[in-house]
């Protein structure tokens, strides 16, 4: 989904400046579309609910796993 990728990149760049709905509106999305994208990103573990200034979502930190096969 093109809008999901665009929103995810915008969320990274936003760094908590705008709330999640305003950020979606800036990209031309209505509130329902924005909420649907947020649900998808949450289910993919790309974002998490965590207050980040004005925004209630932040990017999940990537965890590197050790290679235990060595």
Helix content: 40-55%
SS summary, helix count: 3
Global Rg: 14 Å
Looking at the overall shape, the CATH architecture is: Orthogonal Bundle
Mean pLDDT: 88
Q: What's the count of strands?
A: 2
Q: How far apart lie the N and C ends?
A: 38 Å
Strand content: 15-25%
Q: Spans with pLDDT under 50 lasting ≥5 residues? A: none
Tell me the major beta sheet.
2 strands, antiparallel
CATH topology: Arc Repressor Mutant, subunit A
How does this structure look, described?
With 70 residues, the chain is of the alpha+beta class. It has one domain (2-59): Arc Repressor Mutant, subunit A. It contains three helices and two strands; from the N terminus they run H-H-H-E-E. The chain has helices spanning 2-14, 20-26, 31-43; strands at 47-52, 55-59. A two-stranded antiparallel ribbon has the order 1-2. A hairpin with a 2-residue loop joins strand 1 (47-52) and strand 2. Helix 1 (2-14) packs across helix 3 (31-43) and helix 2 packs across helix 3. The longest helix is centred in the first third of the chain and has 13 residues, at 2-14. This is Winged helix-turn-helix DNA-binding protein.
Write the layout of secondary structure elements.
Blueprint: H1 2-14, H2 20-26, H3 31-43, E1 47-52, E2 55-59
Antiparallel strand pairs: 1-2
Helix pairs in contact: 1-3, 2-3
From the structure above, extract its key features:
single chain, 70 residues, 2 strands, Arc Repressor Mutant, subunit A, two-stranded antiparallel sheet
